[in-house]
Amino acid sequence: MKRGRMGTVIALTVLTIALAGCGSNDFRTDGIEEVRVSESDGFSSFQEGDILTFDTPEAIQVFEHMIEQADELPGVADSVGPEYDIEIRFEDGETDRYYLWLNDDPKSVSSLYDADDTNIGYRLPADVTEELIKLLESGD
Hints:
With 140 residues, this protein is of the alpha+beta class. It contains 3 helices and 7 strands; from the N terminus they run αββαβββββα.
């Protein structure tokens, strides 16, 4: 009887560890103060002009959802320059930057890259893409 329990505990532990790694990333979402979005000029620099600033709780929640739902893409992606530059400013003065590609075709992937590590891409689910498109269109 003890032996069966031990096997169950081990199996549940392995499953928990495996599931914890799935769909996760190390992106920060706590304490977001504002999000600044601009059309991108490419990978070389962040666009400083024509910036949309989002600082309402509802808008910030959309970007939190984007970051939380970003799922690492397998392999290295070859891609054209990003559509948007995103700068997330936190209450403690820290800043994270991302490159974003939005695709409104549900059969294609929208993606996100950390500006500090463009070797790893992250896939965004269709519902997150829809939320972002609506938010960005309303900010124009």
